[in-house]
Amino acid sequence: xxxxxxARRVRDPALPYRWRxxxxxxxxxxxxxxxxxxxxxxxxxxxxxxxxxxxALLRALDIVESSRAALQVELRAYATRRREAKxxxxxxxxxxxxxxxxxxxWYWYGAPREAALHALRFWHRRxxxxxxxxxxxxxxxxxxxxxxxxxxxGVVTAARREVLAVRVSELDQRVCxxxxxxxxxxxxxxxxxx
Length: 194
Description:
Blueprint: H1 3-11, H2 17-30, H3 36-47, H4 54-87, H5 100-103, H6 112-126, H7 128-131, H8 137-151, H9 158-174, H10 178-190
Helix pairs in contact: 1-2, 2-4, 3-4, 3-6, 6-8, 6-10, 8-9, 8-10, 9-10
């Protein structure tokens, strides 16, 4: 089913509440820029305990719908820019061009920095302990960057941002796991590199 169909079910007071919560989780399954569990956690932190409170459920739905709508606007604008560039003979996008088709997998439209910090906290609390202790230098470096970003609340000086940008760029080339690459993207967004 579509996102819109699930969203209508969430808003339908005639349905049993647990079905509405299930429909909401299906909405999140279709739009989960932080990953499914991290997105649910972020929405709960923003809207309240939606599993038990109808007002919180509707607030959480509004938040996820607005993020998805902003993504859709970006996707349409990108498609328009690409069509125009192709008409002018530039068949491939430039390396520095942002592509919302890729960003949609890790970027929260509407509150990117807050969402990235939340995702990093979530990853640090839930995933990092499973990977540590590790002797893998890439994992150790990612763990260090995550800790540094969280300790500073994402606020880093210009000089520190340059150092972090170099570290992130090096990690970008060495990371072989999609999950870890997403963590690196969250570090970039949370610290203002993207």
